[in-house]
Amino acid sequence: MFVINFYILEVYFLGTGTSQGVPIIGIDHPVAHSIDKRDKRLRTSVLIKWDDVTLMIDCGPDFRQQMLTAECNYLDAILFTHEHADHIAGLDEIRPLTILHGDLPLYASEQVMEALKKRYDYIFTEIDRYPGAPSVEQHIISGGEPFTIKGKEIQAIDILHGSLPILGFRLGELVYITDAKYISQIEREKIRGCKVLIVNALRIKEHPTHFNLDEALAFIEDIAPEQTYLTHIAQDLGFHAEVENILPKNVYLAFDNLRIEI
């Protein structure tokens, strides 16, 4: 059960894998044969409990399975980092939540909201709505201004995923970043001083649109948080246990169903 116990903020890693998950269908990679459950990764998403506010960041194709595993049946909002399928493809699965609790607030940049409307036109249309379609509230956000959800201030962070503008989020002493390739010095100032940083580290080899491990570690060294958890991990990064053994102090590989408190 996803509950808060004497902590201000709790993070539940629903998924820590890359766009195809780990293992990948049809790919005979050594990690695919691992018996370590930490090497089985659903698409990247987190559930955050901040006092009495429950938030999800991204809503990928594994949403239903992830919510059932977390035993979570209520969300105050979903925040979207960007519009790629592994981050939005589960939106239709919010139907039970909206039937139970009414309109679900969605927070996204204008470009992401437009992508959601195009992909899920039946959710957003006001004409001839299908009675069983999910019902949502739309909230446009950007990196320029903080926004609030039930009194909790959240700062969006402008990031580049290759050439695609995306968002990270700062929630109190937690910063969540996925799919980053470049973060400007101006945006890094929004991140400094956080206690816990969650950031992507796709693989060992360089990638055109994601931090590889070396790039992620250089970014972590610059920000200097107390603890860091790596996410959005491909099987090419290697076996979880082996990679953890080479990481610097206070840097950890996240894994599915890991729970941390801040």
TrEMBL record:
Identification of the protein by name: MBL fold metallo-hydrolase
Domain of life: Bacteria
A molecular function (GO) term: hydrolase activity
Metallo-beta-lactamase domain ranges (all copies): 42-232
Keyword list, A-Z: Hydrolase
Source organism (scientific name): Myroides pelagicus
CDD domains reported for this sequence: metallo-hydrolase-like_MBL-fold
Gene3D superfamilies registered for this protein in UniProt: Ribonuclease Z/Hydroxyacylglutathione hydrolase-like
